[in-house]
Structures are given as structure tokens and as C-alpha cells.
Design a protein that fits this description.
Elements lengths: L1 E9 L2 E7 L4 E6 L5 H11 L16 E8 L3 H9 L9 E8 L4 E5 L2 E3 L1 H8 L3 E4 L1 H6 L3 H11 L1 H27 L4 H21 L5 H13 L1 H15 L3 H12 L7 H27 L4 H21 L3 H19 L1 H47 L6 E13 L2 E10 L7 E2 H4 L2 H14 L8 E4 L8 H15 L3 E5 L3 H4 L4 E10 L2 E8 L2 H13 L5 H17 L1
Parallel strand pairs: 3-13, 3-14, 8-12, 12-13
Antiparallel strand pairs: 1-2, 1-4, 4-5, 5-6, 6-7, 9-10, 10-11, 14-15
Helix pairs in contact: 5-6, 6-14, 7-13, 8-12, 9-11, 10-11, 12-13, 14-16, 16-17, 19-20
């Protein structure tokens, strides 16, 4: 779960640090206090858009850091698959620094791409704002929700379908590539034979190019080699070292300290004589063969010519040779191979049909169950007379997800037929429907932290009370962080935070801090009573808080 949020120099926030608790975490504050900045900072750390305009005026950069606890074996295995290791205390530090020229994302102090950042954070947190609610009206999202609900039942079938679909598409692609006329096939076969013959006649072997290139280099520089060796030989023949050895040898008898020097000079003289012999021997056997040079040059031209057509190494040319042989065999036995492919494609199609049908049956049964639970949850959220069903349609072709297209249909008024969400639900209703979904999925959703922004859009009174109870129910199985303007929802908080705007040193600044019980009551009173908080309003707030505590 999310343990801590730290924000520095972001918009109106100079410095803010807050520790979140388990259960339902509620954030409240005056309009314009900066609640959206808090959610925006979290979204930024999750890999969302990071604008340089968000840097606080006068600061060089902005910084956001999230501290997560890695609580389950499944989370650790998912991180390992992404090549991420939690710290020794089983925590994960996600940070993002925004400068005028770039943004830098890190996980445990190691730089990562934004794409990887999103992959990792998606394991720990799910943020729902107005945009996410609007995306809920798209049909593709509905099948995702159903599959998440029935994950244990559908996952094995989806895996089998994905594998078979890959085979099915490969067979279709291969058959499609064979859709050429008889004349084109004959022409291609002739060309294949020509290419195969040209490669085989070259009789290439691995490592040949390297050997020939080394020999060619030596022969093409033979004159320079001989000149260099001759100069070296003349230098090594110099008798100066011999005279030096003789001079020291004559005086070594007068001073024992000269004996080691004399011996070393003996060794040098012997080594130089040996080197001189080696150079002379190499020169005696070194010769330039014009015929060999031209032969190597011609052979390299053949090799390089084939490489320019088929690949930059002999290994790749030989690989192309095998591919050409295989293609020629296909062309020469076209009818038999096509018949075999068509047979295998039909087998694959039948297998996909069987798998997709089974998956569809499972989905339809789970869809009925999900719809029934959704209806119950929506009634709990003050949809007094609601009908909720899941409509299934078959796609024209198979996909790696099966052949189902599924859509949620709803009616919120008695006697009205069910219609797609996009045609019926308002913004406030979409928020409640999404909350109902999250409540139904609470048992199967493995993401530990859920953030709700604008969950109270368009609701009040009894509906707000029911929403608060649903949030509390979800909070028993997940960590929930919710921004709200409604006292009914705020009263249900396990941890209550106030977001406050003030002027410090002539600059506006936003801060956030956790409220104690009596402070929470006062904040509830502000939400209830507005600008003037009377004793009656405070008493009402205190009673609301106590009732919420008893209802948990």
C-alpha cells in the first residue's frame, strides 16, 4: 500500500509530506486549496504528464516521491519479472523530478523509463478521476471488468486461446503468402534455383572471410613488411652491445658489484642474437606471390558480392541459402503444401471455435452473476429501481481474447428499457457505477491502493451517505484515498487529512496534514456549515462522526 507522499516545489506546494494509513483515507479542504494538486502529484509520480509549468515559481525543479510497501508474494514476483527488487525493508520508492528541460523517473534510486514506471506503479495503485469514469462508457472496458471479476475462471482459457490464436494467424499469413498465380510461382522457382546455385557454387565456409582477409592484408603490405624487417635486422646486427659486454667483462674482476651488471648484459646479448636469428629466418621465408594475391582478391570479391545480396556475414548468406531451399521446395510442391496448410488452418479454426465458445459460456454465466451483484450494489448506492445487464455479441473474427464483445446496459427508471451507459448515465451516476464496480471487484482486485477523485460529483444527502458506506466497505479490503467535499463521506474516514492554502512570506502555499479526532470534527462542521461554524453545527458534526464510527 501507499505509505507516504512527499512533494517539493510543485505548483502551490513548497514542501509537503504525508503518511497514509490503512482503510479509508479522506482528503478535504476549501475550494481552491490545492486538492487537485495533491492528486496531480500522485498521477505525475505514476508516470502521468509532467509539465515544466507545474514547477513552483522561483524553484529550479519539482519533486514527487511515493513510498510503497511490498506486502505480498505476488507483488514481489511481478516486480522480479520487471527486474525490480524491493528494498531490504520490503519497500519501493518511486520518484519523479521535473526540470525545465526534462523529467527524471527513478525506482529505488535507479533511473527508469516512463513506460516502465507505469508498469511498476500499476501493480500498486489505481487512480480514478473524472477521465477514468468517462472511459468506463467504452465497450472495451466492460469486457476487461468482466474478465477481472471472473479472473480465476477465464484466465486459463484466455491463455489457451492466445496460444492457438498465434498459431491460427501464422497459418493464415502463410496461406496468404501463397496466393500467387501459376506463372508467378514458376518465375519465382526459377529465380530461387538461380540464387541457390550461385551460393552453392561459391562453396562458402564459416571463418573463411576472416582468414582470407588476414592473408590479403599481409600480401598487400609485403614490401612494407620487408622494409621494416630489414631495418630491424640491421639494428640488431649492431656490434655496440658486444663491445659493451667485452668492456664490462674486462673490469668485472676488479669489482664484484659489476658482476650482476655483466651477467645482465650477457642475457641482453643472447636475447638480441636470438631476435636477430628470428628476423633473418622470417625474412628468408617471406615472399610475395602475385598469383596467390590475385586468387585471394578474386575469392574475396565473390564472398563480398554474395554478402551484399544476402547478408553481411557468411553465416547469414548460408542461412538465406537454407531459406531459399525451403521456399523452392514449397514452390515445387505447392499443391500438397497448400492442402496441408488449409487442413491445419481448419483444425486450428475448429480448436479456436471450441476454446472461444467455452470461454464465452463462462463469461455469460459470470456476466449474469456480475450484473446481479452490480444491481445489488447500485441499489445500495441509491439507484432505487435499477436494471443492469450485460449484453454479449459475437465479433466477426477471432481475437487473442476470444470472440466476445460485451457491454453493460442499464435502466435507472422504471419501465424504461436498458440502454448503453453512454446513452443513460450522467457524470454523477457514472461515478457511483464505477464505485459499485470497485465494490464488486474488491475480492478479486489485487491492486492494494485505490484513489478516488471527484467520486462525489453530482450527489448529496442520502446518496452521499450510501457512497460513504461503500467506500468504507472497499476500505476493509483495500487502502482507499478519496478527495471529497461532502461531510457524509468525510465522516467515514479512518484517517482524515486537511489540505489548506495559506500565505507564507508573500507567497501562496498549499499544505496537507493529518487531523486529530476533534480537528476532524471541526472540519466536518466546516463542510456542514460553511463560513460560520456554530456550536449547533459542531454538535451535528460530532454526532455524524460518532454515527459513522458505529456503522463501520
Amino acid at each position: 500500500m501507499l505509505l507516504e507522499l512527499q512533494v517539493n516545489n510543485l505548483a502551490l506546494i513548497e514542501q509537503a509530506q504525508v503518511e497514509f494509513g490503512e482503510g479509508l483515507n479522506i482528503l478535504t479542504g476549501e475550494t481552491g486549496a490545492g486538492k487537485s494538486i495533491i492528486i496531480g502529484s500522485v498521477n505525475m509520480a505514476l508516470g502521468g504528464k509532467a509539465s515544466r509549468d507545474s514547477i513552483r515559481q522561483g524553484a529550479d525543479s519539482a519533486f514527487v516521491q511515493l513510498l510503497f510497501s511490498v506486502d505480498t508474494k505476488e507483488q514481489r514476483e511481478a516486480l522480479k519479472a520487471l527486474e525490480i527488487e524491493p528494498g531490504e525493508d520490503q519497500t519501493l520508492i518511486i520518484s519523479r523530478k521535473i526540470t525545465p528541460s526534462r523529467s527524471i523517473a527513478k525506482i529505488n534510486d535507479e533511473m527508469v523509463t516512463t513506460a516502465k514506471l507505469k508498469q511498476v506503479t500499476s501493480l500498486f495503485i489505481d487512480l480514478h478521476g473524472q477521465h477514468e469514469n468517462q472511459s468506463f462508457i467504452h465497450i472495451q472496458k466492460h469486457l476487461e471488468i468482466l474478465d477481472a471479476y471472473a479472473k480465476n475462471q477465464v484466465s486459463p482459457w484466455k491463455e489457451k486461446i492466445s496460444q492457438e490464436y498465434k498459431n491460427y494467424q501464422a497459418l493464415k499469413a502463410r496461406l496468404s503468402s501463397m496466393e500467387s498465380g501459376q506463372e508467378d510461382r514458376l518465375r519465382e522457382a526459377d529465380f530461387c534455383r538461380f540464387e541457390i546455385e550461385s551460393i552453392e557454387q561459391a562453396a562458402l565456409r564459416e571463418g573463411e572471410e576472416e582468414e582470407l582477409t588476414a592473408r590479403y592484408r599481409k600480401l598487400s603490405h609485403a614490401q612494407k613488411i620487408m622494409e621494416g624487417l630489414s631495418e630491424a635486422y640491421e639494428t640488431l646486427e649492431n656490434e655496440e652491445i658486444t663491445r659493451a659486454v667485452r668492456a664490462v667483462d674486462q673490469v668485472a674482476g676488479f669489482d664484484e658489484g659489476l658482476i650482476p651488471i655483466r651477467d645482465q648484459m650477457y642475457d641482453v646479448e643472447a636475447l638480441m642474437n636470438e631476435l636477430n636469428h628470428s628476423v633473418k629466418e622470417y625474412m628468408d621465408h617471406c615472399s610475395f606471390d602475385e598469383g596467390e594475391f590475385r586468387q585471394i582478391e578474386d575469392r574475396l570479391d565473390v564472398i563480398h558480392g554474395l554478402q551484399s545480396k544476402y547478408g553481411n556475414t557468411i553465416s547469414k548468406v548460408l542461412q538465406v541459402l537454407e531459406e531459399k531451399k525451403k521456399r523452392l521446395e514449397e514452390l515445387e510442391h505447392f499443391d500438397e503444401i497448400k492442402m496441408e496448410l488449409e487442413k491445419n488452418l481448419e483444425i486450428s479454426r475448429n480448436q479456436l471455435e471450441h476454446l472461444c465458445t467455452n470461454l464465452s459460456d463462462i463469461r455469460k454465466a459470470a456476466g449474469n452473476e456480475l450484473a446481479e451483484r452490480m444491481k445489488e450494489s447500485l441499489i445500495d448506492l441509491n439507484f432505487l429501481d435499477v436494471a443492469f445487464v450485460m449484453d454479449f455479441r459475437r465479433l466477426k473474427d477471432y481475437t487473442r481474447e476470444g470472440f466476445d464483445e460485451a457491454e453493460f446496459l442499464i435502466s435507472t427508471n422504471p419501465g424504461e428499457p436498458v440502454k448503453p451507459l453512454r446513452a443513460v448515465a450522467s457524470g454523477g451516476e457514472l461515478s457511483r457505477i464505477m464505485l459499485a464496480i470497485k465494490n464488486v471487484l474488491a475480492d478479486t482486485d489485487e491492486i492494494p491502493t485505490l484513489i478516488f477523485d471527484e467520486i462525489d460529483t453530482g450527489i448529496s444527502g442520502r446518496t452521499a451517505q450510501m457512497v460513504s458506506q461503500k467506500l468504507n466497505a472497499i476500505g476493509k479490503k483495500h487502502q482507499v484515498i478519496c478527495i471529497t467535499h461532502l461531510p457524509q463521506i468525510a465522516s467515514m474516514a479512518d484517517s482524515h487529512y486537511e489540505i489548506k492554502k495559506s500565505v507564507q512570506k508573500g507567497k501562496t502555499a498549499t499544505s496537507i496534514h493529518r487531523l486529530k479526532k476533534e480537528e476532524s470534527v471541526y472540519e466536518l462542521a466546516r463542510l456542514l456549515g460553511g463560513a460560520k461554524i456554530t456550536e449547533a453545527v459542531l454538535e451535528n458534526a460530532r454526532e455524524m462522526k460518532e454515527l459513522a464510527e458505529r456503522s463501520k
